[in-house]
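Page 37, continued from 36.
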């Protein structure tokens, strides 16, 4: 069930990126271009993506999706843009030579971003989801040229220490890790093990990850679009197990020998992408983006 949920979520995120990429260049100036997203869509979603290539329909489809998903469309686009910018700036400014993506789903961030320096690329994801992704990319007419070391790991049933090569931890690597969109579905013990693993990387290692404000776990009406009961969440197969109060994030990271650098809320990253238009956007305010560094 969790894999089904992950695949469905990955497909909808790919749809969002495909629609954003179909906007005119001037309209997506402060977003991104993902030429690969459309290839991961099932037929029904691919039709929507194709229709969004028509300028007038792109605006209409975007509005409908954002309304149907309680602000998820604009929030996810802005969040993707923010992480893209953080990734490129961190690599440029801190001499990063290893980029590790945890649970990237169908996002081809490594292929769609331009990197000025030589990097070792690693993607760690669920075996079946990763296999689907690789199969799609392998059969593209213009296959991506970047080499990625794909490592299949089931976070719920496997230990990172025993399944991921130890050489990734070596000190000659200056590592940036991106962990996008999976923390909320984890149980607390699993999240603890993952952060313990992250803390073993060399000093200066940076990590970008998403988390949800824990208030949404118990007070679902605290945020727009979340006035839904725990029972209804289970019926929709949406799992929210792991959250954190923003006021406690610094202390939480300190327990894993990490320092908090940034903790950005959805309103902030919406405004950075959409400017004044973001004043009329809302939904998914409980999602936050963090950057931390291993001490």
């Amino acid at each position: 069930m969790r894999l089904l949920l992950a695949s469905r979520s990955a497909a909808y995120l790919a749809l969002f990126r495909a629609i954003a990429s179909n906007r005119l260049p001037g309209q997506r100036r402060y977003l991104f271009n993902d030429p690969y997203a459309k290839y991961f869509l099932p037929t029904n979603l691919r039709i929507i993506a194709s229709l969004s290539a028509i300028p007038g329909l792109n605006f209409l489809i975007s509005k409908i999706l954002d309304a149907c998903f309680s602000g998820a469309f604009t929030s996810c686009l802005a969040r993707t843009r923010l992480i893209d910018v953080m990734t490129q700036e961190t690599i440029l400014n801190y001499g990063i030579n290893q980029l590790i993506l945890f649970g990237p789903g169908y996002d081809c961030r490594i292929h769609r971003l331009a990197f000025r320096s030589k990097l070792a690329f690693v993607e760690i994801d669920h075996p079946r989801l990763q296999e689907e992704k690789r199969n799609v990319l392998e059969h593209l007419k213009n296959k991506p040229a970047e080499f990625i070391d794909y490592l299949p790991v089931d976070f719920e049933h496997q230990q990172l220490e025993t399944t991921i090569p130890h050489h990734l931890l070596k000190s000659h690597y200056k590592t940036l890790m991106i962990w996008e969109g999976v923390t909320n579905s984890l149980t607390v013990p699993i999240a603890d093990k993952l952060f313990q693993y992250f803390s073993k990387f060399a000093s200066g290692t940076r990590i970008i990850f998403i988390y949800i404000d824990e208030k949404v776990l118990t007070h679902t009406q605290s945020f727009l679009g979340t006035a839904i009961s725990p029972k209804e969440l289970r019926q929709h197969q949406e799992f929210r197990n792991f959250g954190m109060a923003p006021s406690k994030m610094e202390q939480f990271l300190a327990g894993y020998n990490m320092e908090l650098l940034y903790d950005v809320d959805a309103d902030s990253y919406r405004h950075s992408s959409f400017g004044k238009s973001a004043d009329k956007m809302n939904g998914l305010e409980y999602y936050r983006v963090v950057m931390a560094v291993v001490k």
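Residues 72-93 form the longest helix (22 residues). Flag for discussion at group meeting. The beta strands are 98-102, 120-125, 149-152, 175-179, 206-212, 258-265, 287-294.
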